[in-house]
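Hi R.,

Here are the chain sequences for the assembly we discussed:
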Amino acid sequence: MDGRLLIEARGITKTFPGVRALDGVDFDLQAGETHILLGENGAGKSTLMKVLAGAYQPDAGTIALNGRTVRMANPRHAQKLGVGIIYQEFNLVPYMNVAQNIFQGRFPHRWGFLDHATMHAESRKLLDSLNMDIDPRAKVVNLGVAQQQMVEVAKALSVQSRILIMDEPTAALTDREIEQLFATIYRLKQQGIGIIYISHRLQEVHQIGDRVTVFRDGRLIGTRAVSQVTLDELIGMMVGRTISHMFPRDYQPRGPEALRVEGVVSGTRLRGASLTVHGGEIVGLAGLVGAGRTELARAIFGADPYQQGQVWVFGQPVKAANPDKMVKLGMGLLPEDRKAHGLAMLLSLSENIVLASLQRLFPRRFVDAGTEREVVARYISDLRIATPSPKRLVQFLSGGTQQKVVLAKWLCTHSKIFIFDEPTRGIDVGAKAEIHGFMNELVKQGAAVLMISSDLPEILGMSDRVYVMRQGRVVAEVPRDKATQERIVAYAMGHEVEP
Amino acid sequence: MSDVTPQPADRKERGPLVAWGRMPPVAWVVLLLIAFFGVTAPGFFTAGNFLNIMLQGSVLLIMSIAATLVILTEGIDLSLGSVLTLAGVTAVLALQAGLSVPTALLVGVLTGVACGAVTGLLITAGKLPPFIATLGMMGIAAGLALVLTRQGAIYSDVPAFVFLGGGTLGFIPMPTVIAALVFLLGWIALYQTDFGRYIISIGGNETGTRLSGVNTAWWKLLTYVVAGALAALGGVIMAARLRAADPIVGNGWEFDAIAATILGGTSFEKGNGTLGGTVLGVLLISVLRNGLNVIGVGAMWQPALIGLVIIAAIVFDVMLKQREVIR
Amino acid sequence: MTTATVATSCGWHLDPRILYTGSRLLVLGLLCAVLTIASPVFLTTTNVLNILRVASLLVILAIGQTVVILTAGIDLSIGSVLTFSSAIAALALKAGIPLPLAVAAGLVVGAALGFLNGLMVAIVKLPPFIATYGMMWVAAGFAVVLLKGHVVYGFDEDFRFLGVGNVMGVPMPIVLMVAMWVPSYLLLRHTTFGRSLYAVGANQEAARLSGIKKDQILMLAYTLSGLLAAAAGLVFVARLNASEAGMGANLLLPAIAAVVIGGTSLFGGEGGIVGTLIGALIMTIVQNGMNLLGIESVWQGVVLGALIIVAVLVDQWARKASASENA
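And here is the predicted structure of the full complex:
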């Protein structure tokens, strides 16, 4: 960091209908620094990011790049001024090759036609400088997520970006790939490039950040040097209140065996995974991205087929599983991607809540409006779901509320076995605590819960026991009293662990 | 260093004509059909017959290229057949009004351009789903054709015009020459120009492409305009061949064009497809039609058999694709 | 949608569903009002019954299409299935088979073809567009074979009653339409099947992961579509007193138009047969109005195309309006 200000934004305000997304924000970015943005969902960090990238125009305030005041009319303009942004959803075209993706929108020409040779040569140079072994002729669809991300970085560099904005870059990466990303970031910093980095992973603040800025409700709460702030302080700033009971758990002796899984093999993703879950306990399932946790959950639930292995539910073996069968047996799965797999966005709260219980609630196939109303009202009140009406379409609800609806749906089935896949991902801290509270209630009433999470504090705070998966197998079972972040990470990565 | 994901990046892309590394199943079906007909029908394997196949497939090829370009953008154009009809009508009307042949051709093609522009605007500015916009345009264009011709065929015998449809360049029929030219231009456009890259980009990731600073609305609009122009060209050739513009001649052509495109391996999503594949698709349908004729299958049976083969080929292709994905 | 503060109450919230149906009722009302003023004949019993009678055929066909479109699919084969299944019934009648059996035969054939469609979509996992397109070809082709290019005509009184009879002054087509619409409405809105259907259309994977047997639902949807196409075909043949191979060809687009104009989304999960009924009425009234006002029938295609476009444009606007209200 050489103190030179790449960005100086003052008094940035941005309002959308009914919502003040940014309120008088002052922000700056120094050359060569990694500046992390923290905040709950809707706190304003992605809005600021988009303003700086030219995707939004601020209603008030000024932005100066390298000392010069600018007004960025659109992303193209911002790009020309040296601001590059990498969104979570990549801007890459799958069936075009790497070189063409890098030169998207600015293809070099020779005699009026595309100059493939130049694109290839330049891309090669760029990728080499990033230490990336990717063939410029490869079609993007054939690359892994981490490689695609590198292509995005190369793309940003190819337009001479001096500022790089990255939106949750590590969300879909394995730990190994995260290391490589950090190495790349370090290399970029050496070149004086300033990086704005949005993340929900608190541990990254100290891993990669130089300064960190916290947002809340559209306001910038504070900017600190990473070396001079603790995570608890940061959480306090994000939430504005101390969360005394981050992880509400009443531990109790466990009940009888509810779910047993042995030797499940499926494709290359699951190579013989085994675990058990008893009533009255929350079993955490940890592991790196790609270890096979979601695959295992889906296989257990019957959502995906598996070639070998066996699943027992309440002692009964299950053959040829499919979700319909598993639901009847009393199992529920809250999927990782609640929008894509957990809810029907076009349907109402009420319709979603009863969706998995149709046969149970209406055995004569006729949907009785009165019953539906009663049942739904009960869950809306029990789970404190914020909505003016049960007829509201689910697409209009916030993330935390949507997750509660998914939970309500499964509670309605009177299931006894729950598989939660990343139950609090992308949810603000307040709603997180609520959901944890509900999970606690569930097991107090005897349900068996399998909880997949990439949030280690959540795993440690909520689980009776922790299984760790690695490369398609469950490689460790760690009781609560022996569970530490280091231990779990070690198992997840295959390192030696002292007993 | 990245050992986490495999590196299939070394698979050489040997030119974008057809992905020879993985011969599409359609190619096999075509070869099979050719073999079958060659064996069962003596008249099939002659130069004359092959020229016949190419002639009959010419208009379909032009229409299918139009369909392919649109489908590559994750869109669809149901109005192609109606535009074909309408363009033939306007061209013949122009001839009847005494305009010169080149002018009449221009009128016909511009008809297609206009229809494509309207459709494109409805989709880009009006934000209508392509299915709806082109469905509406289909009705409008077909309706206009009926209105302009007063529901009957209209005729033209102008020699220069008729030559387009019935004449030959050397031994190659004119429609085939034109179709070959269209293919060549299409290939160049798709693989060697910005326009072609943007078509793939819009189909593959429209939002991302837009955020990369590309004016996707404009290029999408252009795609539909080009498709309309091509369909119009097909209509003009058709009218030249028939020496008449028939107000219902184009009915159903869009479905054949789309079928040929899909058979050729182009997906409805993600901008995945090749122009060479479309040629194969057109070849399949043309060989099938011709072959059934040559072995003497009654005209009555043809639609049914053709339908069965098409559906079988598509099922075959889709199932193979799925097997790959699972792997 | 950024929400710095979660909206927990916003007074009167716009339920998109009410908006869609309401806006269409409004249009229908306006249409009727305008035509009542413009023509003294419009609101007479004869004319109203006429409108309802013509619309009924469309509605019967469109109910099936609505069900399929609600699953985010489409059935391009209904025209051909209509032709083929009614041809079977017609030939059966001519062969002396008693009426109930002949009618049943037609219905069963239609349902069977629909079932095949469902198989292709749900089990083979073909895109609906392609599967039903193939079926369209095949069914149309075999209808030609079946009828050997002839027209089958001249049926008995009791069969023709289905098309031209009256029940207490109400034409049979209307009675039959109501007889099919009401149970269908109950099925879609008040049964677990209907709930599951909407869920499958709104989000197939989420529905499956909620324990819904999506394959079953899909197959039932297409079977229903085939069944209703056959029913529509029977009424059609009874009315025309003839069965010939080209009958159903021009019915596909009006059916889709009725569904779309009625507000059902092509992307599934939104809409219903209330909308389809209104859509069919709007279409028929527009046609009727044009006739009454002396506009040449040849313009009807153009108007239909424009109607489709306008209807969906209005929907887009409504969608945006409710989204910003509710955000």
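The first strand of chain B starts at residue 154 and ends at 155. The radius of gyration of chain B is 20 Å.

Let me know if anything looks off.

Best,
T.
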